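User: Show me a protein chain along with its predicted structure.
Assistant: Here is one chain, sequence first, then structure tokens.
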Amino acid sequence: MNQVLAELLTGLQLAEPQQAQHIAVFPLFAPGRPSPDYLTLAAALEQRLLTVTEVSVGGSVPELRVSNKAAQPVLLLDGEEVCGAKQNRVLNTSILVPEGKQVDVPVSCTEQGRWSYVSPAFSASGHVMHASLRASKTRSVSCSLAADSGFTSNQGEVWQGISDMACHLEVGHSKTGALKDVFEARQADIDTALQSFALLPDQQGILVLINGAPVGFDYVSLAPAFAKLHGKLVRSYVLDALARKPKKAKSRTAALTAAQAFLAGAAACEEKQFKSIGLGEDHRCKAKGLAGSALVHAQAVIHTAFFRVDEKEHAGHMSDLNRRRNYRGD
């Protein structure tokens, strides 16, 4: 494994877990690690330093155009959603858009029933795709990269994952099958859970357990950037927890042991490296039951996320590459 990534994964520190019913959140820290400066997507949009649009008037489902007018790079986070234009999308991987540059970025649709303009450009939806679907998307994008097909997701799998979550949560009819509608339908439950997961000073990530089992973790190199992402990342894990029947809580010792084992498993993954769409390198990691990715730039891990994956699912990832290559708007 890349030395910078391996050192980070083995050096991550866990704070005391924060608990709400069957969800345990371990705040993550990696003190003393240098990082280049950058803005988050939401901050850049708020300051009108970034625009996100369709790649053309006609649009292309698996791509968006990002123009960065800021004097520093902008981090687009894997699974982060933007809404508007012809249909809502999420980022297929984490990308550090260079200052003063325009790039076309790979995305997945999270609103199947719309292909018409509601605005000329996109805004931040305030959501990150729920963790279980990010897990399957991470694996499908990794398979696509291994097959030399770029940062392409299995779009059908994404749509099915949104539909399944809406069904599990008994969310009423969504006119366009939008992921955003699922989050908003359970907003009160999510807000209640959020009260138990306070952001700590200098926090850089979270590792989440549901019913005592690790689901995944996210780490961001700059604490101020993570502070802006903390709420939406916690919500993405809470949504998954709402779809799972609560079981008897495990002890703090058992939860800590499980969290430490998950981090150790991430550090032991096999890894492949690819050129990122923006700055740096995109690292893809896998092991039995685990899928992860990391964006490394200037000798720093800008963002990394690892997820538990179900080995019984997605057996046809490599065989269905042709079905997911060219999702275009009509």
